[in-house]
Write a structure and sequence with these properties.
The chain is an all-alpha fold and 301 residues long. It is built from 16 helices and no strands.
Length: 301
C-alpha cells in the first residue's frame, strides 16, 4: 500500500487511529501492526503522517496486551528505516520509549525487552550523541543480565546492542570502561556459545570494545582474530588474551577468576569447559607480585 496507494493512506490512517483504543485486543493488534509497518516506509514523511503515527505508537506503550507493546516498539524502531533523517529530532522521545520497553515489568518472556534492544540498535546510528550518553550506563547495566539468557535471541540482541553502545562511551569513558570489564569474561566465554549467531555477536561486541580498553595488543587481537569470516583457534586465542590482560590489568586477576568460577556451573558444556581454561591462562601469565590475589583453596575446591 505504501508503494502503490500512497494518496489513500492519510484517510486509512485516520480511520485506524481510533481503533488503537478499541476494547478488543485483536483490533488494537491489527491497527498497531499496520501503523508500525507503515513507519518503515518514507511515504509517512511525504504525506506528513510521521508525527501522528509516532505519537500513536508511543501512546500504546502501556497497552495491557503484550503484543501491542511489542509492535509499538517495532514501529518506533522502524523510523530508522522509513525516516532516518527525523530520528535525531525525536531522539529523546524514541530513546525513552526503548528504555521503558527494556524495563517492562509485565513481560515474563522478555519479548518487549527483546524488541526494545533490537529497535534501539537500529536507531543508535541516527541519534544525537548527548541523548545516548545521558542513558548509556542505565542501558548497559539493564541489558547485561541478558548476555546469559536461555533464549539465544536475547543473548544475541543484548550483546549486539552493547557493542553498538561503545561508540558513545567517550564522554563517560571511565564509567563505561567498568561496564566493559563487567562483561568481558562473559563475552569471551560466549565465543564458545552453541549458537553461531551469538558467537558472531560476541565477535562484533569485542571488536567494538577493543579501542576502549587502553591496551593496543588486546585491541589488535580482537580486530584481527575476531573477524566474522575467520575461524578461531579458541585455546591459542585465549592464551594470548590472558597474556595481554595480565600485562595491562594484573590487579583485575581476582575479579576475572571469580567471574569465571560462576561459569563452572553453566548449562552449556563448551562454556563450562572454557571457564577453567580461562582461569588457567590467567594464573599462568600473572606476575609473582599479584599471585596473592588468587584464593587457591576456593579455586582447588
Amino acid at each position: 500500500m505504501a508503494r502503490h496507494a500512497g494518496p489513500r493512506l492519510p484517510l486509512i490512517v485516520k480511520s485506524l487511529i481510533p481503533t488503537l483504543s478499541s476494547a478488543f485486543d485483536s483490533q488494537r493488534v491489527t491497527a498497531t501492526a499496520f501503523l508500525a509497518e507503515l513507519l518503515s516506509s518514507n511515504v509517512v514523511n511525504d504525506l506528513i503522517l510521521l508525527e501522528s503515527v509516532m505519537d500513536s505508537m508511543t501512546g500504546r506503550q502501556k497497552d495491557p496486551c503484550l503484543l501491542v507493546r511489542v509492535l509499538a516498539l517495532r514501529g518506533l524502531g522502524n523510523v530508522a528505516v522509513g525516516a532516518p533523517e527525523k530520528v535525531r529530532k525525536h531522539g529523546a522521545k524514541l530513546l525513552a520509549s526503548m528504555v521503558n520497553g527494556m524495563d517492562d515489568r509485565d513481560d515474563p518472556n522478555n519479548l518487549v525487552a527483546l524488541e526494545a534492544m533490537t529497535s534501539l540498535s537500529k536507531l543508535l546510528e541516527h541519534l544525537e550523541e548527548r541523548d545516548v550518553q545521558a542513558m548509556l550506563l542505565h542501558i548497559a547495566i539493564r541489558i547485561r543480565p541478558f548476555f546469559d539468557s536461555e533464549q539465544p535471541d536475547l543473548r544475541r540482541s543484548s550483546i549486539v546492542l552493547f557493542g553498538n553502545l561503545t561508540k558513545f562511551s567517550e564522554g563517560d569513558c571511565e564509567a563505561f570502561f567498568e561496564q566493559i570489564l563487567n562483561g568481558l569474561v562473559t563475552l569471551l566465554l560466549h565465543l564458545q556459545d552453541p549458537k553461531p549467531e551469538v558467537v558472531k555477536a560476541c565477535k562484533f561486541a569485542l571488536r567494538m570494545c577493543g579501542p576502549n580498553m587502553g591496551c593496543e595488543g588486546l585491541c589488535d587481537m580482537f580486530l584481527n582474530h575476531l573477524r566474522e569470516d575467520r575461524s578461531l583457534h579458541y585455546g591459542e586465542f585465549m592464551n594470548n588474551v590472558c597474556k595481554h590482560l595480565m600485562q595491562s590489568y594484573p590487579e583485575m586477576l581476582n575479579r576475572l577468576v571469580l567471574t569465571n568460577l560462576f561459569y563452572f556451573k553453566s548449562t552449556w558444556v563448551d562454556i563450562r569447559a572454557a571457564a577453567p581454561m580461562f582461569i588457567g591462562f590467567l594464573v599462568l601469565h600473572v606476575g609473582e607480585d599479584h599471585c596473592h590475589q588468587v584464593d587457591l583453596e576456593q579455586l582447588i575446591s
